[in-house]
Amino acid sequence: MHSEVLQVGISVDSVTKRYGKATRAALDGVDLEIRPGELLAVLGPSGGGKTTLLNVLAGLEPVNSGRLRFGDEDVTDIPAERRNVAVVFQSSMLYPHLTLRQSIAFALKMQKLPAEEIRQRIDEVAGWLRIDHLLDRKPHEVSGGERQRSAVAKALVSHPALLLMDEPFSAVDAQLRRQMRTELAKLHRQFGTTTVFITHDQEEAMSIADRVAVMRDGKLVQVADPLTLYRQPASAWLADFVSVQPFNLIPIEHQDGATLSALGGSLVLTPPGGPLPQRFDLGVRPEHLRVTRSESSTSRILTREIIGGQVKYTIHTDRDDELVAVRSDDEVLDLDTPVDLAVEWAHALAFDPDSGDRLDVRFNEVVASVS
Q1: Helices (H), the chain
Q2: Is residue 3 part of a domain?
Q3: Radius of gyration, CA atoms only, the chain
Q4: Of the four, 78, 100, 239, 330, which is 20 to 30 A from 301 by CA?
Q5: Which of 241, 256, 278 represents a domain boundary (last residue)?
Q6: Is-contact 171 203, C-beta < 8 A?
């Protein structure tokens, strides 16, 4: 951790924010504890409240009710310029007529820091972000990725108590975005600044965050570390939202003591041991649905996509339902191949068919075939 960074915890207590006469609050009684020095990703669909939360934390928007605390200090009514918060937006927000060094130094000069301290801070951050050789150039003379790294340097150089990042990598291409995510994770490990990273990209959130806070309709749905969020999502909606590939949700009913009726009888599953609800929705991620060739099956391969060393299949049932499986490329099946399916029960989830909430059902670690 950088020796001069003061790690501050952030408390959001029952915060509500409404715009005008809107019927639904942009933030609806949000309670959130951001741990000192953590990198928290705030993930959600458009309109979920992510950017409003960022604006409230930054002091750019007042709240209608609730309190905000940075450490022991109540900052609810403190203006943005006095909160010691830095924000990195989607666009780099650099001054086009200044060099990168001058842009990065601007806030420090306004604070009237000594010239030598300004130089040392800039050199340190620029070295970590690998832009030290670009400092004498202007924004239009560097690439989009280099501009964004410069914007991060501009934010970090002031040693903020809280670093807010609003989808900072959305304007760069996919390969560079993955590279910059890795750089951000390394940078956070070095500087340890309490950071809130806003994104709608589940892969981005799950890959770099210490914890992920998922928002929907102005409310927090779940806050957890990425693996817990993946393995124990609070609802079927959340399970699907954090999945990189489409999430299989299969309606299940007991047919008799030995079988489960799936998809309205289109498929029959051999159940695992243990008690099961009479009705539930079975959640199976594509990587936990096995596919094998079977001439007697009425289910067939509808589409096939090669994804690196994996193959993504869409399987069409005789009732026109579709399931998605992702398997290794050891055996690649052709289109229209009849297939049997098998569920890896150890990784399966159960959800209430009416509310969508996850049920506390523990499946035995067996593979159940689907015919």
Answers
A1: 50-58, 100-110, 115-128, 144-156, 174-191, 202-208, 226-231, 236-241
A2: no
A3: 25
A4: 239
A5: 241
A6: no
